[in-house]
Design brief:
mainly alpha, globular
């Protein structure tokens, strides 16, 4: 799990690169934030988070991310816009880190 110090460091790095492409830093920051609420994620979202972390580490492919992203969208199909449902919001947040 990532700690506050690491999140602060990632945020500083993102701010320093303002105006430049910093996708990797943003993704690592989002993964760190999501890891803080991992215990509250629905099971599929937790699996998706783990896969996204493995992608950043270089152990899974972009195709794996696509398959998981499709599974996550299917999980919330018909409820995508229910912003009052914490499990839908959690799933949507995890979907954001399932892009190469």
């Amino acid at each position: 799990m990532i700690g506050q110090k690491e999140l602060d460091s990632l945020l500083d790095d993102i701010e320093e690169r303002q105006g430049t492409r910093c996708t990797d830093g943003c993704t690592r920051f989002m993964l760190g934030c999501l890891s803080l609420i991992r215990h509250r994620l629905p099971p599929l979202a937790e699996q998706a988070l783990e896969l996204a972390q493995r992608y950043v580490a270089g152990t899974v492919s972009a195709a794996d991310l696509i398959r998981m992203r499709v599974d996550c969208w299917r999980q919330i199909s018909g409820h995508e816009m229910e912003t009052g449902d914490p499990s839908v919001c959690a799933m949507r947040a995890v979907i954001c880190v399932l892009y190469p």
